[in-house]
Predict the structure of Orotidine 5'-phosphate decarboxylase.
Amino acid sequence: MSLTREQAAGRIMVALDYPDAASAEALVSSLEGIPCYMKVGMQLYYAAGPGFVKSLKERGYKVFLDLKMHDIPNTVKGGANSITKLGVDVFNVHAAGGVDMMKAAMEGVDAALAADSSLQRPLVIAVTQLTSTSMKVLNEEIGISGSVQDAVVRYAQLTKQAGLGGVVASPQEVELIKAACGDDFQTITPGIRPAGADVNDQTRIMTPRQAIEAGTDYMVIGRPITAAADPRAALQSIIEELI
Ligand SMILES: O=c1ccn([C@@H]2O[C@H](COP(=O)(O)O)[C@@H](O)[C@H]2O)c(=O)[nH]1
């Protein structure tokens, strides 16, 4: 796999896990000119709201809104409808909500697009098993038997059946997901840790290079960049690892 610097940057989604818009803004400014995705998750969205998402879009960023919706189908349909109106590029639901819930998300998207033809169609993806979940937790706490890989592939197949475009999983599962759901089915993978980096609360990890070689489409990276003394240098070093 050989990527240009720009292609490598475009495969990275920087997780803006910050408590307020000012802190996130400082990180975004420090990365100016690098064409990576920006990922807005619960912490920042609940604090800064849709205005921050719109400001990223106005500045030309591709945005992954990572709110992991998991509710009854009617509520998820409404949520997906509102998110589509924000103009984000990617958003997600939990595959554990089931096929009807995931189909409802797609209905919410379709209704927004039917009402406003200027909107873009977002990529809708589903979370399989969180990358912090180990086999021990899956089996002994959550009570799902079998391997994490089996659970992830099953969720991925349900996600495809519901008509979504891909899943969130660990890079360790990308090859199995692609084998089960096809090469075009997108894999968005957190659990990325450069060699020697703090693992934090992640359990199913790979280095950026290993993830790209495993075939991941996009890698989500937070603390290895945001907690670095020089976030721009940390991101550039990851990009160098990928080219
Ligand atoms: O299974 C999942 C789903 C989402 N995430 C999110 O990705 C980033 C990872 O941040 P790091 O600091 O690189 O660990 C974070 O926003 C999570 O909410 C995930 O880690 N695993």
The chain has a mean pLDDT of 98.
